[in-house]
Write the structure tokens for this entry.
Amino acid sequence: MRATLLAAALLVGACGGGSAVVMTQADAGTVVPDAPVPTPIALVDWVDDLVDHHTNDTDKPDTVDDKVIIDTDQTAPFDRFVGQ
């Protein structure tokens, strides 16, 4: 199960693009952002949270819509997940 979560998290991180702020124009002509940009989270920290808090039937599922995930090319931070 944990290997599946790790694979899913790595896939999401690999598929992620940059973070863009979408702007809309209000009726009065002022430009306002659609939504606040979430605080960035490192991919390894997010995977760690998934493994610790989202791995059984009673845990609430986690989403990526409310996160800006920072990817890394380093494999060492993920070594602790291998073999769990």
